[in-house]
Amino acid sequence: MSSLTSNPKVQLAATAVVSAAVAAGAILTYQRLQEGDRVSRLKQSIPQPGDTDPALQSVTRTGTLPQPDPEDLHNQALAQRAQTGDFDDELILEQLARNRVFLSDAGLQKLRDAFVVVIGCGGVGSHACAALARSGVQRIRLVDFDQVTLSSLNRHAVATLADVGLSKVQCLQRRLVAVAPWVRFDLRVQKFERGVAGGVLGGWEGEGGKRPDFVIDAIDNIESKVELLKYCYDEGLPVISAMGAGTKSDPTRVMVGDIGASFEDGLSRATRRRLKLQGVTSGIPVVYSTEKMGEGKAALLPLAEEEFQKGSVGDLGVLADFRVRILPVLGTMPAVFGYVAANHVILKITGYPMDYQPAKARDKMYEAILAYVQASEEKVVRMFEGGRVDVCIGLKVPITPGDVAFLVEEAYRGRSAVTGIPTKLMLIRWKKPQKTTLVRIGEGKDEQKSADLKLRDLVCLTKEEAVRHQKEVLLGDKSLEDLYSQEVIELVEARQKEAEAYERHR
After folding, report:
1. Are strands 239-242 and 115-119 parallel, antiparallel or unpaired?
2. What whole-number distance in Å separates Cα of residue 460 and Cα of residue 284?
3. At 184, phi and psi to the nearest 5?
4. pLDDT at 302 > cutoff 70
5. Is there a contact between 122 and 329 (Cβ–Cβ < 8 Å)?
6. Its pTM surpasses 0.90
7. pLDDT at 208 > cutoff 80
């Protein structure tokens, strides 16, 4: 053994192994330190609430501005002159000439007088903002807590490599003053939430507190999105909301419709569900895609397991409450969503005629389902009232097309509770009543007749399944257990609880 340890070759080999191990350990340690330093610098570069930058008084939080180059200095100086009136209006009108002949002088003036708030200045919001500035809107408030990153550059409207690390709102202002120096930007580097809504959506300072003419919601965080839309709905602020551009690839499927009718979109579905639980079932226009997911297409991916092994996943996010997921985004699609949103705002503000294509006649489908509910309830009432037809004359059901949309699209996910089939859907009472469901109020010509029907009483089935259910359960003697498995019964009970929660906020 001693001869081996004294052998120069063995000693050399051992020294090499030890040196390699030490070097590898040093490299790994250095890499960990670098990663920790990057995370630390990232978090430190996001200032705390209340910090202000004297150079941009309207910024509530700001990162470190890069050293301005000669072009930045020139653009900022020109913007200062333009915003104090030292800019020939004929030059502005010449730049906006194409919009002017399209919208008319009166329409363009409305646009120039307008005040628009864009909340979320990433892929969608940046393109919406750029379109508004180029089209003539002269007061734009930008709201976003985040910074430009390398991964932002595949979809951001104006960001360059030089803007990486800069807050998104400052990036937009920095680049767009070079295009339209007369535009006044009010920058808010902050996350939108209910507690700051009054300030973020308040009036334009210095001009009599002018309320926003429109709000563009380009937020991708569901909680903030719902809080914004609910606030705008309650306060009567015109708003248009961009739904999910991630995983979408077909620009011909992007459209504008009411939030109650949007479909084939996960963010839209989640937003709609939460708003309906707060009593908002319609009245908010949204930009969404009708493109269906399919084999070979991009999909929302979970964070890879090896990322979890590196430590706290929260260190990978800008904010602690923002879940880290991999969202595949084709760079062109956020731009389409952003321009569609901006287009809607421009047309609305100027009063230009709008004639959107209806969303696959979903309203007609809901009305047909509602008619089926009405007819089914009349049969149930007649069964308890000795078959008399006159008792059903003028019978009303306390269900609206919006209720139908919620039950079909949200509670039952657009599928039959029994077979999962997504076509020819109907709603029908699930359990057979133990007594008459007829409710009478008043007498004679003032009498009101209605069916005692709750949303939680209804189940979603195909038309064929509904016909059988009515014949054998509601009008027959079979029990639910005779026709359906325990799994189906439990599924319906779970959906009924969702309907009951929604019903409390109608």
Report:
1. unpaired
2. 26
3. -95, 120
4. no
5. no
6. no
7. no
